[in-house]
Specification:
The complex is a heterotrimer of chains A (about 290), B (about 270) and C (about 260). Chain B is of the alpha/beta class. Chain B contains seven helices and eleven strands. Classes of the chains: A mainly alpha (about 290), B alpha/beta (about 270), C mainly alpha (about 260).
């Protein structure tokens, strides 16, 4: 059966292996960070960080720096700006945030255009916006591993106060939790995660990896640890399935145009969400009947 | 007197729980009625039911003069979430009470604006006319919501907990205002509250809600130990303390209190 | 800048900007700015799909943005922000796939994402104007119900306004407007033109009719300046729209802060 699922050469293709490795590690960490993001109803903030990450990535492209540096720097800068403006205090989908981030997207347009003028860097738009998991180099994998390890340590360190202050900020404050500091730390963690996800799926689609798998896992209605593990499973599963699908798709049409990895991964995430929602709707109907 | 609304045999079930059970009452034209019950007793549910925002599990709500369908029922919710920057003046918002439901873009006649100003005058909110609706205090917003409900000349006005969060002085003001509005506009009023005392002087009818059941009638017919005990399903005392009425519910617990003879009523 | 081949661009740009400003007035009022982010991505997927399949772009633009909009409208009741975010991203991914399959050139991709002055060809002018006219009529018809529902949904429901009908009607209008805006301003920046100027306008006046007119006017001014600048500099239209909208909003916000809430 494996022959049917997997086209020839997948197991020996090192570019695919590298890409899959990076994707899986990022997806695993992103699942936990994204879980808190969804619980804290900060999906919009996560999306906003991706917009600024995009500008960072495009700017990095202009300076011929690696995309990863641009994504993470841009994202952290965006997080800093958001803290300054006080996004947390404003309502979630506040117009102010959206409009100001439109400027970041506008800057991305400028940077990408300028990059495209330089004929030696074709495909920069594709890479920055939609990612190019299969062209990831080995030292990026090391950088990602280190970053993810730091993130994992960071999340574990602030995990309990983070959960407490997410669920009940006043009670947490009364118990001595430095809510503002935890909040700031989490925003920084979100920023780095978004930057890493941008490598996997591109800046524009990175939000899907951040909030899709946790959203699906939350619909299973379990406790925190089980939900986090489910989210990680959904995320890494989506990445692996997407990688395989993208690799295989090269052989599906005579024109040998493969489907982009990011599209495949996002599709799997959407399908996971749809499947879990459908199962839950069915279960609920059976419960009433 | 003719009935404006008749609620008969209504059950409302929400999330498997019977929130209202076998509710029977009616409201007559021009009556001032209080819907009295403690928090969580089902007052808001009953109001939403009457407005057609909820369907009963059993029973029905009848409007003999078809007031609801004809949009002659005004509703003043407890609060409305408003963005500070919303570009609507108080006058605009009140005018929407008259024509906000109509599709199409016919010019608003002068008479509508005149009516808006008159209604704002009658709720003592004329000074607020040009302010942004998002920039009002709680009390000011309440008057505007009242004007919004009154502008289309309703037969019945439903108010959800208008007296909550008000100090006694402000409570008095609102109740007197509502009584004046009832006299001037001839509109029936049903307002929900958890303290009966602020309304005793003004109510023609009390609709008392407890234990998912309802008792309706004149105040002195309903607020009695026998009627309320039947309602609550256990013994209830009605006590007058310095002219204020207190309904004493809950279980007897002799051990909890040290004996103070002067406090004991047996 | 005013050569004959540009008249089309100016005409379409004017119509599109006025519609974006009008629609945006209601978007901001209703708090649907996240949806306004997501719907143009539907248009993006549609345009990419149209290129792949070989039909007129307008067909793709309209069909996919309507699909996206109705989908988001239908999800309003259950955890809609996740649904909107996934629609936003899903449509973008779909568009990327279509573009990849059709071997589109990078400039094509950039034009769809960040806008192009000559984004609408003269052959499309008649249907574009017709769609825009229909949208203006729809907004006019829904004007007061939209205002009432935006300010106080409970009161609107109590007056017999069907929330679903109104929501779907408005999302449809939003989608049609997006399908016209995306070719000119780009999928990623359409939102800026729709939301930025109206957000500024509402700070400048408390009368709804004035705010609506001002939204349209500021949106028009933004697009005119963006078109002129893009023409002169060869930089993407979207860049100017995004930065000008943000600048406009920030300036107005700072200027009105001193006046206080009662203004």
């Amino acid at each position: 059966m494996l022959h049917w699922l997997v086209e020839p050469g997948l197991w020996s293709n090192s570019a695919v292996h590298l890409g899959a490795a990076v994707g899986v590690v990022v997806a695993a960490v992103s699942a936990w960070v994204g879980l808190f993001t969804v619980l804290r109803a900060q999906s919009f903030a996560g999306h906003a960080l991706a917009d600024v990450a995009m500008a960072g990535g495009a700017g990095a492209g202009l300076l011929a720096w690696p995309a990863l540096v641009g994504f993470v720097t841009g994202s952290l800068a965006g997080a800093g700006a958001m803290e300054l403006i006080g996004v947390e205090r404003l309502r979630q989908r506040d117009v102010a945030t959206g409009v100001v981030l439109g400027a970041a997207t506008g800057l991305s347009a400028l940077f990408l255009y300028l990059v495209s003028l330089d004929s030696s860097s074709s495909g920069a738009t594709q890479v920055i916006l939609f990612g190019s998991l299969f062209s990831v180099s080995a030292h990026v994998l090391w950088l990602v591993l280190v970053a993810c390890a730091l993130l994992a340590v960071g999340v574990a360190a602030i995990g309990r106060p983070l959960l407490f202050s997410s669920v009940s900020p006043e009670a947490a404050g009364a118990r001595g939790v430095r809510v503002a500091r935890v909040s700031l730390s989490f925003t920084a963690v979100m920023a780095v995660t978004v930057g890493l996800s941008a490598i996997v799926l591109g800046a524009v689609l990175s939000t899907a990896l951040l909030i899709g798998p946790p959203a699906a896992a939350l619909r299973l209605g379990r406790g925190l640890r089980a939900t986090g593990l489910a989210a990680a499973a959904f995320g890494t599963g989506a990445v692996l399935a997407g990688v395989v699908a993208s690799y295989d798709s090269y052989y599906w049409w005579p024109s040998h145009r493969a489907l982009p990895v990011s599209f495949c991964v996002v599709t799997v995430i959407v399908l996971e969400l749809a499947a879990v929602s459908a199962v839950r709707a069915l279960a609920r109907r059976r419960g009433d009947g | 007197m003719s009935n404006i609304v008749e609620v008969t045999g209504v059950d409302v079930e929400m999330a498997g729980r019977l929130v209202l059970s076998d509710v029977d009452f009616h409201l007559e034209a021009g009556e001032f009625a209080g819907l009295i019950g403690s928090n969580g007793a089902g007052k808001t549910t009953l109001l939403r039911l009457m407005l057609g925002l909820l369907t009963p599990t059993r029973g029905e709500v009848r409007w003999p003069s078809d007031a609801l369908a004809q949009r002659r029922v005004g509703y003043v919710p407890q609060k409305v979430n408003l963005d500070v920057d919303v570009p609507l003046r108080v006058r605009d918002f009140v005018a929407l009470g008259e024509d906000g439901h109509r599709y199409g873009l016919r010019r608003r006649p002068r008479s509508t604006w005149q009516r808006v100003d008159d209604v704002l005058e009658s709720v003592e909110g004329a000074a607020l006319a040009e302010r942004r609706i998002g920039a009002l205090s709680g009390g000011e917003l309440q008057r505007v919501l009242l004007a919004h409900a009154l502008v289309s000349r309703p037969e019945l006005l439903l108010l959800d907990e208008p007296l909550a969060n008000l100090d006694p002085g402000a409570t008095q003001d609102i109740v007197e205002l509502l009584a004046r509005v009832r006299d001037r506009e001839g509109v029936a009023v049903l307002l929900s509250a958890h303290d009966i005392n602020s309304l005793i002087g003004v109510m023609d009818r009390v609709v008392y809600i407890a234990n998912a059941h309802v008792a309706s009638g004149r105040t002195n017919e309903v607020v009695r130990p026998d009627v309320l005990s039947a309602l609550y399903g256990h013994h209830v005392d009605v006590v007058r303390v310095h002219g204020r009425v207190l309904v004493v519910t809950g279980d007897a617990n002799d051990e909890a209190w040290p004996s103070h003879p002067e406090l004991v009523v047996e | 800048m005013f050569a004959s081949f540009m008249t089309n661009a100016w005409l379409v740009g004017t119509v599109v900007a006025l519609l974006a400003g009008a629609t945006g007035f209601f978007v901001v009022m209703r708090g649907s700015s996240f949806a306004a982010h997501a719907v143009p991505n539907g248009a993006f997927a549609g345009a990419a799909g149209a290129t792949l399949v070989g039909v007129a772009p307008l067909i793709g633009l309209v069909s996919f943005s309507v699909l996206a909009a109705l989908g988001i409208g239908a999800s309003r009741r259950h955890r809609s922000d996740v649904a909107t975010a996934m629609a936003l991203v899903g449509m973008l991914a779909l568009g990327a796939a279509f573009l990849s399959l059709s071997a589109a050139y990078e400039p094509q991709v950039e034009a769809l994402l960040f806008g192009e002055i000559l984004g609408v060809s003269s052959s499309q002018l008649a249907p574009v104007l017709a769609i825009a006219a229909a949208c203006f009529v729809a907004l006019a018809v829904m004007y007061r119900p939209l205002l009432l529902q935006a300010a106080a949904p409970d009161l609107a429901a109590a007056r017999g306004l069907n929330a679903t009908t109104l929501e779907m009607g408005f999302m449809l209008t939003l989608a049609l407007g997006a399908s016209l805006t995306v070719p000119v301003v780009g999928a990623l920046l359409s939102f800026s033109l729709t939301v930025g100027p109206p957000a500024a306008a509402r700070l400048l006046t408390r009368r709804p009719a004035t705010a609506l007119a001002l939204s349209m006017g500021l949106s028009l001014a933004t697009l005119w300046v963006a078109l002129a600048a893009a023409y002169q500099s060869d930089l993407p239209v979207g860049f100017f729209v995004g930065t000008l909208s943000a600048l406009l909003y920030v300036v107005v916000r700072l200027a009105t802060r001193r006046r206080g809430a009662g203004a």
